[in-house]
Amino acid sequence: MWRVGTVVALHNETATARTITLEVRDWPGHVAGQHVDVRVTAPDGYSAVRSYSLASAPNPEGRVQITVERLPKGEVSPYLTQEVVVDDRLEVRGPIGGWFVWRTQQTEPIQLIAGGSGIVPLMAMIRSRASAGGVAPFRLLYSAREPGAIFYRNELQAFSDHEHSVSLTYAYTRSAPKDWPRPPSRIDAALIANATWPSNLVPTCYVCGPTSFVESAAGLLSACGNSPDKIRTERFGPTGDRQ
Amino acid sequence: MTSDTHDYLDGNAAAGELSKIFTMDVTVAEGQCAHCGATKRFAEAHLYMQCPGVVARCAVCEHVLLRLVSVRQRVFLDVRGMTYLSLDTQLQDSI
């Protein structure tokens, strides 16, 4: 069932990514980690549907946020990141998916691993934990091309500074700040061993990113002794605009 | 393993398309592969979307579990690759 969402706010996260806040009439509520399908229709009737993870924590106002990364050859993402203005209307279907979710009742240690814009559903989990006053121990390992590509940096820093909150590790693949302890490179076994919960704490792991990133991160988590049953993954592919 | 084998998503990505047909969220259901007998969550299947529709394959043996194709106003669903689907109604109520 498609619902109409009205754009109520826009915020640029990076040079190429934008957060869109929508007010959706009769929004039934969601759980952190779920996504929505967004349908945009051109004046000639051609329409395209893309899936976007929800970035926002569940809230009573019926507001939902998505963060969209502009893909150079994308069909939908250039429109959503450059042309949409406040008061525009978008069709949304959702919330969707009950597998890649974190519920506030979960108390076990949580390991989040993000590759690029894979941070979005994990941010919903972090925000959901905070808004529910949760105490589940959270760790986030966030891999991005470069410092300028990090989404939600100030908010993540605030969560990380707050006592008993989210432990945060950034890793960069192309360029890192001066004196950064780890040279730019893809995630590897040493990083996973240092920046994630020891497997004997039996964390639930959520990994989201491009397919090859997820493949590699899930394999490394498994090699560190985490049971495949405790590793949940959400891949977004090389084709289409899905993220 | 070639890079082509990495061109899949997770079964959870099919949730929107499947919601056209099913009132319950099929991605959290357990399904048994009719080929190798593995029983896993549908969300864990390998999903191929670079085709005219959606193809889900078993994460263990890569046998086709489900095909879903929309042609104009008609939706075609083929689930013969699964012996059964098992859905937790209590979990569904909480989604």
**The CATH fourth-level homologous superfamily of the largest domain in chain A:** Nucleotide-binding domain of ferredoxin-NADP reductase (FNR) module
Low-pLDDT runs of chain A: 238-243
The CA-CA distance between the termini of chain B, in Å, is 36 Å
Low-pLDDT windows of residues of chain B? none
Average per-residue pLDDT of chain B, rounded, comes to 88
Tell how many strands the DSSP assignment of chain A holds.
Answer: 11
What would you say about this model in short?
By secondary structure, chain A is of the alpha/beta class. Chain A has helices at residues 77-83, 119-131, 153-161, 189-195, 211-223; strands spanning 2-12, 17-24, 35-41, 47-53, 63-69, 89-96, 110-115, 138-144, 166-172, 204-210, 231-236.
Q: Any descriptors?
A:
heterodimer, A: 243 residues, alpha/beta, Elongation Factor Tu (Ef-tu), domain 3, Rossmann fold, 2 domains, six-stranded antiparallel beta sheet, five-stranded parallel beta sheet, 20% helix, globular, disordered C terminus, B: 95 residues, mainly beta, five-stranded antiparallel beta sheet, three-stranded antiparallel beta sheet, 2 helices, 8 strands, 9% helix, 40% strand
